[in-house]
Amino acid sequence: MPSIAPIRKKTLSDSVKDSLRKLISEKAFNEAGKLPPEEELARQLAVSRITIRKALTDLEQEGLLLRIHGRGTFVNPAARQVKVNLSGMLEFGSVISGNGYRPECRLVSVDEERIPASVGEHLGTGKGGRGIRVEKLYLADDIPAIVSVGRIPLHLFSETPARTDWQEKSNFEVIQEYTGRMVVRDWIEISSLSAQEAGEMLGHPCPLKAASVLMIQAVGYDQNSEPVIHGGALYDTSHIRFNLLRHAEG
């Protein structure tokens, strides 16, 4: 079953940005990629001009839009080439579908463990802290494409989540349901690993067929800026591609 995107509280501006991103991906604007004036967008989306202006400014900073004085707001042509934007928190099923494949999630294992010291430093569990380790395999058109390992401090849970919850829901959803904590931001580190190194990280042969894989490690923080999950994800880059639009400073 494909993983399910976590539920997060959204502002009205965030909802407007989601709507505009969808319109951009569907090439809903004219051939020149010009957006309607702010007043017209506000009317169509039934929000204020202030909300529209905030959403447009954010999307411009992300590189999706170009605002040209005296001419209007346009879709950045480079944005049409973006499959999966690396600038936001990533949901694995969306990463796979964004690359044009059919996603499927398989739960490999759920175990209670002593959290490794290197991970405990990020989670603040101290030496010998206990946690839940959740490993999942994500397929792209039935081909292994992503392996994820999530570690969550055991003390966050007053009751142990059912195995079916880990299978049917994202780690973020399980954390929110059982602890009331919502992951709102994360810190990431990107590196590459050989197949052998990936196997050593997993504790078993890596199911990805690539000779080397991309690894993204992340620490997720809740609404109180406390770390609640450490994730390590391995990507087969022969199937998964990321994009990042950047703009010059100043």
UniProtKB/TrEMBL annotation:
PROSITE patterns: HTH_GNTR
InterPro entries linked: Bact_HTH_transcr_reg, Chorismate_lyase_/UTRA_dom_sf, DeoR_HTH, Tscrpt_reg_HTH_GntR, UTRA, WH-like_DNA-bd_sf, WH_DNA-bd_sf
CDD domains, per the entry: WHTH_GntR
Transcription in keyword set: yes
GO BP annotations listed: negative regulation of DNA-templated transcription
Stored Pfam families: GntR (PF00392), UTRA (PF07702)
A molecular-function term among this protein's GO annotations: DNA binding
Keyword terms, alphabetized: DNA-binding, Transcription, Transcription regulation
HTH gntR-type domain mapped to chain residues: 10-78
PANTHER family: MANNOSYL-D-GLYCERATE TRANSPORT/METABOLISM SYSTEM REPRESSOR MNGR-RELATED (PTHR44846), MANNOSYL-D-GLYCERATE TRANSPORT_METABOLISM SYSTEM REPRESSOR MNGR-RELATED (PTHR44846:SF1)
Designated name of the protein: HTH gntR-type domain-containing protein
Species per Swiss-Prot/TrEMBL record: Enterocloster bolteae 90A9
Native organism taxonomy: Bacteria, Bacillati, Bacillota, Clostridia, Lachnospirales
